[in-house]
């Protein structure tokens, strides 16, 4: 769906309108117009910087993937042939897309208006721009990030909260890179990274920062150091993330659902009932408030992945009343993946 022409807004709760005004231009966090369940946003225009927009997540499942691209599961015959292509989902779902020129333009704009003590030098800006160009492309011909660039990114990620969002967008992309993942998620620095992201995710925080912190955590799963870090901090991270289900922002809900799904994927082959119980609990709690179909779908996949081939987890899910909670989604036909996945989860619980 796209929006054109004049716009009349009526009866929209002000708490749901997250428009950040900076430097005279509107910034709407994380809303794009791609075909992955992220609806177009009527508040944005061409050329505006939207962190993490066009967020086609990279999560290959073969030819047909419910998380990516146009035409996924368009064939009924194909769906019938593959009885369960939804879960267990054990490879991480990440937020890949970005518009590097827009990120840099917004960073420069905010830097110009930043308080003197927070202004970045020309050398710092060039270093961040170089880093962004490297981490934006999986097969970039540019040299890998230097320790100096990574240290600088970490330092600038502590910019004032009202202007830090473009830096967080660079961080989101950077943690997918093996060297950055190891450097920022390693044993010494990893806890500091988690604590910083958790501070940005507090319920009273800025939605743009909440969104990008969640997406950064999701992208940390793309490296072994990041996975180890997030698993070691699971209880705290999922507890803080669960609080964001109450925020009226569908893109935050999608990121939250993706984080739960990535945890479920990592836990699938592990006999850690306590951890799986937390995944079930957070997913169930989120489903009480989440309305966006893409977020609901990812929560259903997380539930399915958690209970798949695990009788104890299935018993726990039944005791939590998960079946009755999700049964209303079994008849959803648009998108069809929601209803199909829900039916498969219900089947696993019976």
From TrEMBL:
Domain PUL: 85-348
KW Nucleotide-binding (keyword) present: no
Keywords: Cytoplasm, Repeat, Signal, WD repeat
Domain of life: Eukaryota
Family matches, as PROSITE patterns: PUL (PS51396)
The UniProt record lists the keyword Cytoplasm: yes
Gene3D superfamilies: Leucine-rich Repeat Variant (1.25.10.10)
Pfam families: PUL
Signal peptide annotation: 1-23
InterPro entries: ARM-like (IPR011989), PUL_dom (IPR013535)
Protein name per UniProt: PUL domain-containing protein
Originating organism: Characodon lateralis
Phylogenetic classification of the source organism: Eukaryota, Metazoa, Chordata, Craniata, Vertebrata
């Amino acid at each position: 769906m796209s929006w054109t022409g004049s716009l009349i807004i009526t009866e929209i709760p002000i708490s749901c309108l997250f428009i950040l005004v900076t430097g005279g231009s509107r910034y709407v966090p994380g809303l794009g117009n791609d075909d992955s369940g992220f609806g177009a946003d009527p508040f944005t225009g061409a050329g505006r910087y939207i962190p993490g927009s066009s967020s086609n997540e990279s999560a290959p499942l073969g030819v047909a993937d419910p998380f990516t691209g146009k035409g996924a599961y368009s064939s009924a015959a194909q769906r019938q042939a593959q009885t369960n292509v939804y879960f267990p989902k054990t490879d991480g779902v990440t937020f890949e897309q970005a518009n590097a020129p827009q990120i840099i333009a917004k960073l420069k704009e905010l830097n110009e208006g930043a308080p003197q003590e927070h202004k970045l030098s020309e050398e710092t800006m060039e270093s961040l721009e170089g880093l962004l160009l490297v981490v934006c492309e999986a097969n970039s011909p540019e040299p890998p990030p230097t320790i100096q660039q990574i240290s600088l990114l970490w330092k600038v990620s502590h910019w004032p909260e009202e202007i830090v969002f473009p830096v967080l967008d660079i961080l989101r992309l950077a943690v997918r890179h093996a060297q950055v993942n190891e450097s920022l998620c390693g044993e010494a620095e990893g806890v500091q990274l988690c604590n910083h992201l958790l501070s940005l995710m507090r319920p009273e925080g800025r939605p743009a920062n909440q969104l990008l912190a969640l997406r950064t955590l999701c992208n940390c799963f793309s490296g072994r150091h990041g996975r180890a870090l997030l698993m070691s901090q699971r209880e705290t991270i999922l507890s803080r993330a669960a609080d964001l289900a109450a925020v009226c922002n569908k893109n935050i809900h999608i990121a939250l659902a993706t984080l739960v799904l990535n945890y479920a994927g990592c836990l699938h082959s592990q006999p850690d009932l306590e951890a799986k119980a937390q995944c079930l609990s957070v997913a169930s709690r989120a489903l009480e408030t989440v309305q966006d179909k893409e977020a609901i779908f990812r929560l259903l996949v997380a539930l399915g992945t958690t209970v798949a081939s695990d009788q104890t987890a299935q018993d726990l899910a039944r005791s939590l009343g998960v079946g009755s909670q999700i049964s209303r989604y079994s008849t959803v036909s648009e998108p069809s993946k929601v209803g199909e996945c829900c039916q498969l989860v219900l089947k696993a619980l019976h």
